[in-house]
Design a protein that fits this description.
Keywords: Molybdenum, Oxidoreductase. This protein has about 700 residues and is α+β, with helices and mostly antiparallel strands. It contains 16 helices and 31 strands. A hairpin with a 4-residue loop joins β8 and β9. The model is unreliable at about 1-5 (pLDDT under 50). The structure holds dioxothiomolybdenum(VI) ion.
Length: about 700
Amino acid sequence: MTSTPTDVRRRSDTASTVGTSVERVDGLSKVTGEARYSYEIPSKGVRYGWIVGSTIASGRITAIDDSATLADPEVLAVIDHRSAPRLRAVGDTELEILQSDAVRFHGQVIAIVVATSPEAAREGAEQLQVSYEQRPHSVVLDPDGPTVYTPEWVNGLNERAVTEFGEIDKELSEAAVSIDSAYTTPPHHTSPMEPHATMARWDGDDLLLHNSDQAPYVTTTILAPLLGLAPEHIRVVTEHIGGGFGSKFTPRAVPVAATLAAKVVGAPVKIALTRQQMFSLACHRTETQQRVQLGADIDGRLRALVHTASQYTSQSFEFVENTATSSRMLYSAVARRTHHTVGRLDVPTPGPVRTPGHAVGLFALETAMDELALALELDPVELRLRNIPERDPDTGEAWSSHGLAECLRLGARTFGWGDRDPRIGTRRRGRWLLGTGMASSTHPDYTFPAVATVRVEEDGSVVAKVAGADIGTGARTALTQLTAEEFGLPLSQVTVLLGDSTYGEAPPAGGSAGTSSWTWPIITAARELTAQLDRAHGVVPRGGLEVTANSADALAKRTTLSRHTFGAQFAEVAVDIDSGEVRVERLHGTFAAGRIINTRTTRSQFMGGMIMGVGMALHEAGHLDPEFGDFVNHDLASYHVPAHADVRDVWADWIDEVDEGLNPAGVKGVGEVGITGTAAAIGNAVHHATGVRLRNLPFTIEGVR
Ligand code: MOS
């Protein structure tokens, strides 16, 4: 094919869309149903798997009678621990499904029924007769229980479970004012709109997974040792995802089940979880029991900050919620201690859920700060301003940028905090007591190595490939904008392809690290390409021009700095004087998140996080029943999340923040910070309205009255 040489060097006539409101590039395909999700990918000869979950929480399987199931001619196979292909041990029995008769939690995968239709598979699963030898189980967190220990690490990056700095006891005893409070947060579930779903297809020794996945590349590296395959024999494709919330951060039982089933029946197999199965086979957030001790001088400067957290993990895998890690860096204190303990219970493995650690940890810390402000008779915003550290108090590193003070000031002004009467329980509108409260927000800014390939076609259009995933956040759109900006092209000339592990190493859509990580090699490749094109006087050679870049080296050379997103949240609540019902009338967040690529999707991320914070404050609680040994409210009818009527006036804005110490795009994560601090701001507002101090999530009417 011949084409007119295209000068792609200078398109300064095309203004960058960065910093403006851009509709999602995949929005139309999603709302029209053209976008396909993993379970919808057509495949010739596909079979359907159904997962059978254990009905006991601890013990072993003594017998499985599959005669009734197999009597149905539509049923092709029943796969259980006696017949399943062997997996390698990887230290996570939640992934090592069907390898023994042991049952470690209620709902554990104990069999897969494969049939020619999902209905037949489900029917067959219901007919399976399973006998057990049941052992006593425990799903009740007792911080002093026999299985409780102090782990070495918490979830996160080289984050120790225990930190101690300075003379805590001395500083606490010398403090003019101190508080010592206990807080609890219940289990939280993920349950994104699209459940866990996989289609697995074997081609000889090559495995293809269409998997609903936050991390297509990472999944290959986790499944490879489990399956005894080289990672390059596994391809994970995940073009569109209907949410993850952390549950698809790493592969769980479903892709493994589909892989085994496809092997056994010699055909592609699809498996999706039901909504109810999501509550045991997708991950959830552990319950936490926390204690915060604060000691301050009379002027409000913190002398001591102690934050301890007890939580649980499963018998299958050690996952430790990083509950107290933001207490290490948010405020300066002369002495500081954080301590996590964890107990093994007969529960499904908890995992990363919508801002692991910081969401629940900041509920405790930011409520404690409000209690301290009251004890000091100091404005809560002012108390925080007086404790902003010069450097990261935990690592001693300089901040890449620190927008908290500006967020507190701007947020307070926007919200109208200045007119606030600090007296408790004095404002009333009819039957509603009114109050306002605030809290700080923060989340670490992670950037991980990634590989991207960028190609300039002969017609001057650009295609960028990176093995990231857009879980609905708008990441694909932000990457398209940033790529277009590099080339000076309109968005219509740029295509960003995500969700294919063969594009190379890339971190998950998680930890609020996606855009900063994936964009780095794209920008590096784009700059190399534009330099090459400049040397060629803008002429694209026949066949196009392609560069693959890896950000690992540049990332390793990045200056050591402490990188965090910050924010300030302000809430106004109304509390019914009789019932104790809490309504969040107004929620305003101001954030410092580096360069904002897309005002529309960024605001949506902040507001989405804040609404999850409303859910944390008012609705969400998984109830582990001691007898049953599992969550009794395992669907979205009984596990409550905010509905439209609960989300009234929610708005987010941000400060202009330029931070050169981050990544070539200058971006910080925006996905998770919005949830942090929200529940505390709401609880602090309830206290202002009523004088009732809420330390246990969620704030149900029993707690408020
Ligand atoms: Mo998220 S909980 O960082 O996947």
